[in-house]
Structure formats: structure tokens, C-alpha cells
Design a protein that fits this description.
Layout lengths: L9 H15 L4 E5 L3 E6 L13 E3 L4 E2 L8 E7 L8 E6 L4 E3 L2 E7 L4 E7 L3 E9 L6 E10 L8 E8 L9 E6 L6 E5 L20 H4 L4 E7 L2 E7 L8 E11 L2 H10 L4 E7 L9 H4 L4 E7 L10 E5 L2 E5 L3 E9 L10 E8 L3 E7 L5 E7 L4 E9 L14 E9 L11 E3 L8 E5 L8 E8 L2 E7 L4 E5 L7 E10 L4 E9 L9 E3 L1
Parallel strand pairs: 21-27
Antiparallel strand pairs: 1-2, 2-3, 3-4, 5-6, 5-12, 6-7, 8-9, 9-10, 10-11, 11-17, 12-16, 13-15, 13-18, 14-16, 17-19, 18-19, 20-22, 22-25, 23-24, 23-26, 26-27, 28-35, 29-32, 30-31, 30-33, 33-34
């Protein structure tokens, strides 16, 4: 907090907060919550607004992470290329006098969501949509879209988000952590939440902390001090009409362990924690436990991999099916502690012999999402499932949590000839083919026979046409069950079946008698 000493009493802090609240309430905006996290959002998209005055409030403790002291939370965007689109920027931060070079297009809100749309120099439109994160009640998700609305190409599109952590109940004295991750779009980070939000403003650290400790590096539990987090992003060029979308997250958890699983559930690619400066009698400090609240500020779909990744599986990993059958698979998503993740947006895709477009799903309360499809052609498919991190509706480079499974489809070919009532494997020189032959017992006569492979009817034979070669080429190692049901001329029915290994190391002999 820039204008108050960290040695002030709690009463002074609350008085300053009320003063800021009175000032901020003159601006338009909205206060939204999901029952666990409450946000106060100004109409230009920055935080610290409303009644009750809120920045990021953890409702179970009623503590806030940004409202005390100066309303230092904000964002900025612009273009850094003089040759392509010209250099310009706009930003919003109540501590810097509110919006700067921003035109408000619209602001809407209800009890739990809000959307701010602004534009800069009629060239860049910024849409920021606030809604509860579907994966966890401990986070709000902000879907940010930067769109070129001008006639010229923008050669160097930037976005900045920053905050001064003022973690209650010890506002102005907090421990801060930053995890930068591997994001390709991250240009700069440090602990200075007191800057304006202009992406081209000079950068320096704050809180009396050496620059090398907090500039463009990961750091853990630095403090106690009055400081925060700043992230600068570069999204490259945008042609006229083009846009790019990424996500920001705000929230809190009752302790650091829960904060870690929260970050895992949402698959955040970078984040900052803010924790109070408390040392309970006989217990570890809050910088270790994160109690009674660890505040979270993070990003996703910014070109990196999740720092605390969830685990996504797809089962069965391999399966064999006959053409015309249905293959069923189940995706399961769990966080880093093994807890199921519900509400996560998933996408299934199929490539190979039976390609299919993207199919959207959401993980259920137990973390699972089923998927099934029918194969129309023989061959092998690769089924992919991913967390749709960027909301594009497909599995792409911005979706790093991905896994696959294989489905092999066999075309079953029945040919006429021979006689019999015994199921025999005549040959398997290639280890992927065999012949069904029916032989009559003495005194019995076959009227008709039905051949099923893995429960699927593939042929019906009558009279003397009682031989059926079966082609299993293309199947992975596994078992394949062939069953025959024969109806005799005396009205009796007889059945026989045998399970074959599609990739036996040597020929399998034997027979099944009906």
C-alpha cells in the first residue's frame, strides 16, 4: 500500500478502506460472487469496487486480498509496433485515476457474472468476461479477448495485469509467491503492483526487495513486505478482424495445500500467491500453512504448461472392435492430490480410419466423461481427449493436457462353401485370420447357422454353404470371440464358441463342437 505505513493499526487500515470504498462507489461497476469468492469490478474491468467494497474477497473468512489501502489492481493493453499499427496503449487502475485512453463500449453484470468491453484508439477491443470457474468454487475465471477492430495489422499486441497484494488480516505485510511457468507469451514479471497498468511503463521492483530476487524469476514466500504481482504478455501480431483469447483467475483457499489443488484443478500455467503474516502460538507461520487464507492470481491459455498439472486418463487405452460395433471410452480427470475434477471443459476427437470432428463434454462430479462412436471402416483410430484450456472447441497447441487411446476396427468377411457343425481354426499363418467350418454330427442335419464375432452377427448360413473365413488384420494384440448358433432340421438348437488371440506367436489349433 503506497500511502499507508505497514505499522498502522488495524483500525487505521479499516478507515482507509472505507475512504477508498466511498470514492470507488461513485464509479459504475458490479459486485459478484459464487458463494466462496466475491469480486468488486469497475466498469472498465479493473477490480476494487462496490458495496460491500471488494477486490478479491474470500467469503468464508471475509478477508480480502486487494481492497485495503490504495485500490491498486489493474490492467492495460496496446500495440508496441511503430511500423504495424503504431504504438498506443490504454489502461484501467483506480489508483491511477481510473481509465486512461480507454473508451467504454459496454458493461453488464448480474449476481455472479460481469462483462466489460472497452476499446483503445478504435484499433484494439478488449472484452473481459468474469464468471465462476467451472472446475472449483475457489476461483473466478476471466475470459479475456483482444481483437483488432482497426483497418491495419497490429504488429505487437500487449496485455498487462497487476495487483498490490494487501492480504487481510495483515494488510500491507504479506508473503508473495510467483511461479512463471513456461508460457511463451510472458515477457516480464515482478512484485510491483503499484504501477499503472500501462504495458510500456518502466518497470522496477518494490518493497525494498532486490530486483534480482523478484524480477523475471520464480520466488517463494518473499516478505513480509507490502508488495504484489505484475505480469506483462506479448501476443504477437493481429490482422484486422483477428483476435486472441486467454484466461485470468482470481480466488482464495483456506490454506496453501488447498490452493495447490485449486491451481491444479484449473490447470493454471502461471500464478501468484498472497499470504498473511501470522505466526500462531505453538504453530508454523502462515507463510508455511497459508492459513487462514491463501489468495490466488493466475493465468491459463498463455502458451505454457500447467505448473501443478491435473491427471487426465482415457480408458481403455487400446481396444478391438468389429466394423459396425460401438467403441466406448471414459476420460477421467483428477487434481494433483488425486481428487476428481468436475466441470472441466473437455474435447474428444478421432483421427484415422473413422475420423470425427470435435465433441465437447464436461467432467462429471466423479471426474469422468464418457465418449462412444461407431466404426464404419476397418483400420486403426486414435482417440484424443484434452482439457479445452483456451475454449476454442478443439484440441490444439493451447491445450497442453491431452491424452490418447487406440481403437482397431476389423472387417469380418464371410465366404460360402463346405459343410459342418464344428468350429475349427483352419489356419493362422499370418496370426490374423482363421476359417469357421461347420461339420454335421452323424444323424443330425443343419438347417441354418448364425455366426457372431464379439457378439456382433456377421453372417447367416443355410444348407451346404457352411464355411466362413474371418479376416482380423489390423487388430492389436488381444482376444476375439467367435460364436456359432446352429438350428437343426429336428428343431433343436446348438451353440459353440471359441476365443482367439489375434496375434498368437504360433498357430492355434483345436475346435469347438456344437
Amino acid at each position: 500500500m503506497r500511502t499507508l505505513s505497514s505499522t498502522f493499526s488495524r483500525a487505521a487500515v479499516l478507515a482507509a478502506t472505507l475512504l477508498v470504498a466511498t470514492t470507488a462507489s461513485a464509479h459504475a461497476g458490479g459486485v459478484i460472487d459464487n458463494g466462496t469468492v466475491r469480486l468488486g469490478i469497475n466498469d472498465h474491468g479493473d477490480l476494487n469496487f462496490g458495496t460491500p467494497f471488494s477486490g478479491v474477497t474470500f467469503m468464508p473468512t471475509n478477508n480480502d486480498g486487494t481492497r485495503a489501502g490504495c485500490p491498486c489492481e489493474g490492467w492495460g493493453a496496446g500495440n508496441g509496433s511503430a511500423a504495424e499499427g503504431g504504438v498506443f496503449s490504454g489502461w484501467a487502475n483506480r489508483d491511477d485515476g481510473g481509465p486512461n485512453n480507454l473508451e467504454l463500449v459496454s458493461f453488464t453484470s448480474d449476481a455472479s457474472t460481469a462483462e466489460s468491453v472497452t476499446k483503445i484508439d478504435d484499433k484494439l477491443e478488449v472484452t473481459q468476461r468474469y464468471a465462476p470457474a467451472p472446475e472449483t468454487p475457489n476461483l473466478y475465471e476471466v475470459r479475456v479477448t483482444l481483437k483488432n477492430i482497426g483497418a491495419e495489422r497490429l504488429g505487437d499486441v500487449r496485455y498487462t495485469r497487476l495487483m498490490d497484494w494487501d492480504i487481510e488480516p495483515t494488510a500491507f505485510s504479506e508473503f508473495v509467491t510467483i511461479r512463471r511457468g513456461t508460457a511463451s507469451t510472458l515477457l516480464f514479471s515482478n512484485n510491483n503492483g503499484f504501477l499503472s497498468g500501462d504495458p510500456f511503463e518502466a518497470r522496477s521492483p518494490t518493497g525494498g526487495i532486490p530486483a534480482a530476487t523478484v524480477t523475471n524469476v520464480d520466488f517463494t514466500d518473499v516478505g513480509p513486505a507490502d508488495h504484489g504481482a505484475l505480469f506483462d504478455f506479448g501476443f504477437g501480431a493481429l490482422d484486422p478482424g483477428a483476435s486472441t483469447t486467454f484466461r485470468i483467475y482470481y480466488g482464495a483457499a483456506p490454506d496453501e495445500a488447498t490452493a495447490d489443488t485449486t491451481v491444479s484443478k484449473a490447470a493454471l500455467e502461471m500464478f501468484s500467491y498472497g499470504q498473511p503474516n501470522l505466526t500462531p502460538e505453538g504453530g508454523p507461520p502462515s507463510s508455511v500453512t497459508g492459513a487462514p487464507n491463501t489468495f490466488i492470481f493466475g493465468f491459463r491459455a498463455v502458451g505454457g504448461k500447467p505448473i501443478i498439472p491435473p491427471v487426465l486418463t482415457l480408458d481403455p487405452g487400446t481396444q478391438a472392435r468389429a466394423v459396425g460395433e460401438t467403441a466406448g471410452l471414459t476420460a477421467t480427470l483428477k487434481d494433483s492430490a488425486g481428487n476428481p475434477v468436475s466441470g472441466s471443459p473437455l474435447v474428444f476427437q478421432v483421427a484415422g480410419a473413422n475420423p470425427r470432428g470435435a465433441s465437447a463434454a464436461a467432467s462429471a462430479a466423479d471426474g469422468t466423461a464418457p465418449f462412444s462412436y461407431t466404426g464404419a471402416a476397418g483400420g486403426t483410430d486414435t482417440v484424443t481427449v484434452c482439457i479445452d484450456s483456451d475454449g476454442s472447441g478443439t484440441c490444439d497447441a493451447n491445450d497442453p493436457i491431452t491424452t490418447t487411446a487406440t481403437v482397431a476396427w476389423a472387417s469380418v468377411v464371410a465366404q460360402v462353401g463346405g459343410s459342418g457343425v464344428t468350429l475349427t481354426k483352419k489356419s493362422c499363418a499370418s496370426r490374423r485370420a482363421f476359417t469357421i467350418r461347420l461339420r454335421e454330427r452323424k444323424g443330425e442335419k443343419i438347417a441354418s447357422a448364425v455366426v457372431r464375432v464379439n457378439g456382433k452377427k456377421v453372417a447367416t448360413r443355410r444348407g451346404k454353404r457352411l464355411t466362413a473365413p474371418v479376416n482380423l488384420k489390423g487388430l492389436p494384440p488381444g482376444k476375439f470371440t467367435v460364436e456359432i448358433t446352429a438350428k437343426l432340421t429336428n428343431g433343436k438348437t446348438k451353440k459353440g464358441k471359441r476365443t482367439y488371440n489375434t496375434c498368437a506367436k504360433k498357430r492355434q489349433g483345436g475346435k469347438i463342437t456344437l
